[in-house]
Amino acid sequence: MIPSESVYCQMKAPAPVTPTGLKKACSQCNLFELCLPFGISDSDIVRLDELVAAQRKVKRQQPLYRTGDPFEAIYAIRTGSFKSDVLLEDGREQVTGFQMTGEILGLDGIGTGLHSCNVIALEDSEVCVISYPKLEELARVIEGLQHQFHKVMSCEIVRDHSVMMLLGSMRAEERLAAFLLNMSQRFTARGFSPTEFHLRMTREEIGSYLGLKLETVSRAFSHFQEEGLIAVQQKHIRILDGEGLKKLVQHQAGTR
Amino acid sequence: MIPSESVYCQMKAPAPVTPTGLKKACSQCNLFELCLPFGISDSDIVRLDELVAAQRKVKRQQPLYRTGDPFEAIYAIRTGSFKSDVLLEDGREQVTGFQMTGEILGLDGIGTGLHSCNVIALEDSEVCVISYPKLEELARVIEGLQHQFHKVMSCEIVRDHSVMMLLGSMRAEERLAAFLLNMSQRFTARGFSPTEFHLRMTREEIGSYLGLKLETVSRAFSHFQEEGLIAVQQKHIRILDGEGLKKLVQHQAGTR
DNA sequence: TCACAAGGTTGATGTGAATCAATCCCCCTT
DNA sequence: AAGGGGGATTGATTCACATCAACCTTGTGA
Q1: N or C: fewer beta carbons within 10 Å in chain A?
Q2: B229 strand-pairing partners
Q3: Ranges A23-37, A50-64, B136-150, B215-229, most confident
Q4: Among B69, B147, B158, B166, which would you mutate to test the A interface (most chain A Cβ atoms within 10 Å of its Cβ)?
């Protein structure tokens, strides 16, 4: 049984993010509890600093990488957010995920040596570039890094299974409710309000992710608002009745 | 762009499986090209034999593990096949995958230490039990094992993304066509006929995997048969026009 | 300040797949 | 060989979401 909010798997307790500035090293990074270095001992963590080959800025709407690009590194999000998607030859797009600070991008490339999806910045963003050969090397010696990396990949698999459940077995409003609860949980983990946040993606992108058309997403938002579950104003969301949303996810009031 | 058949990511050339019998060790196993030891040098491969703590038989319909079970090991399928699924509290089931010989099970457990899905044998089957702590340990020393393990996890992520595409963006007959092509490809990789095979799962399980009802699956099979694309007799499938199926996946004859 | 464009909302209508329901078929057991 | 049961097929009907279309809102740049 998976609770609705577990679409992304959480490995840590919430950690408020103090916006102290732009330290470069993992050992100084306020995101480390959400990121790859989590669980690594203090004595080892300084050795991680050599892991981050560079930081890279990606402008809104620009790709971090594209399908077919050679795989060389994975990326940890420092600031901003991204979407990943897969395209079919006839132009159909499937958004496979939205990623926030501390999350790891690029894992799709390891298997074949080529990236198998596109990753696009939803806003001006910055990532840490983690050389994959270097990561493999360090994972062999640093206690915990190997394990944490495996955890990150495993969590991605579990997350993907939850999305399959969502796409394969839930109706439109259940999907959107699960999506909102998931976003809420992830904002919370980053020290933001659980009940009030700003969505970085369009209705169309949400729809693509949830296997719905943008009109359906819009209607579901409106309906939730009528029911007093949320307050929507464009991309700004306020959750008024989180429990109500949770009930919606689980059985849609006993229907079906 | 992903071709339809890449729902499972293939890391190797087809390898005919000679049914020589039940050697226990990886170094002797005829599946190794499909499995975790792939890509590991001859000198190292004998060291893998200590990896497999035990073999375990699982009877048809019996679970290999269930949601919530503590994670201790991953499993490589020696004989038989499995399905994995996720259950919602109201009883809805989503099949997240079907697994065949050489494929790895249990990766969902690493992240949280608990398994997050059920894995059920579709027929009497046998798996190699790979102790996870042992795997981590050996991955640190054996050139290639670490990398191959990462590849396996990455391929699982890529596969999951293809399923999302399927569930989120394709119509019923496209989904079934993609499913059949994928099965065909995987049977081929195991030395079986690309055009004629026996499905181990029910229409309902196929439907759950594809986000469809069993009646819809049945109708789609019948329709493919009318169109001369396949010949179906219960679980026995013969592909008559693979190209036709591929065209179906990509644009449903230009529709939409 | 205005105008435009992109994104979002809302309504009317169409349709693909779900649902409900009635057999049918095959395999398994006795 | 007969009986039973799970799985599969097929048909009639319903319904959730897609599609088509009009309009609104907000942010942006001249």
Answers
A1: C
A2: none
A3: B215-229
A4: B158
pLDDT value at residue B69:
98
Q: How far apart are the first and last CA of chain A?
A: 18
Put simply, whether A155 touches B (Cβ < 8 Å) is yes
pLDDT of A143 > 80? The answer is: no
Segment B49-74, tens digit of pLDDT:
888 889 999 999 999 999 999 999 99
pLDDT band at B252 (very low <50, low <70, confident <90, very high): low
Over residues A217-231, the pLDDT tens digits come to: 999 999 999 999 999
CA of A36 and C1' of C15: distance in angstroms? 47
Tens digits of residue pLDDT in A181-190: 999 999 999 9
Distance of A215 CA from C13 C1′ (whole Å): 15
A9 inside 8 A of chain B by CB: yes
Please give the Cα distance from A11 to A152 (Å, whole number). 9
- DSSP state letter for A114: B
SS3 A36: coil
Whole-angstrom Cα distance, residue A208 to residue A189?
Answer: 25
B1 touching chain A per CB within 8 A: yes
A216–B contact, CB cutoff 8 A:
no
Strand partners, A230: A239
Average pLDDT over every residue of A109-116? 98
Which residues of chain B have a CB within 8 Å of the CB of A165? Answer: 86, 88, 92, 94, 96
B239 SS3 class:
strand
pTM of the model: 0.92
B133 touches chain A (CB under 8 A): no
Summarised one tens digit per residue, pLDDT across range B4-21 is 444 555 554 444 444 434
Q: Which nucleotide is nearest to B204 (CA to C1')?
A: D7
Distance CA A86, CA B158 (A): 10
B116 contact residues in A (CB cutoff 8 A)? 2, 9, 158, 161
Structure tokens at A168: 């394969």
Residue B36, token pair as written in the block: 């975790």
**Tokens coding A228:** 């007093």
Helix, strand, coil percentages (3-state) for chain B, rounded to 5, are 40, 20, 35
CA–CA distance, B245 with A140 (Å, rounded to integer)? 45
- Residues B28-48: what's their mean pLDDT? 87
Residue nearest to nucleotide D9 (CA to C1'): B218
- CA–CA dist A64, A165 (Å, integer): 28
CA distance linking residue B32 with residue B37, whole number of Å: 6
CA of A214, C1' of D27: distance in angstroms: 20
Domains of chain A: 4-164 (2.60.120.10), 170-251 (1.10.10.10)
Task: Answer whether A116 sits within 8 Å of B2, measured CB to CB.
Answer: yes
Range B32-59 burial, b when 16+ CB lie within 10 A, else e = bbbbbbbebeeebbeebeebbeeeeebe
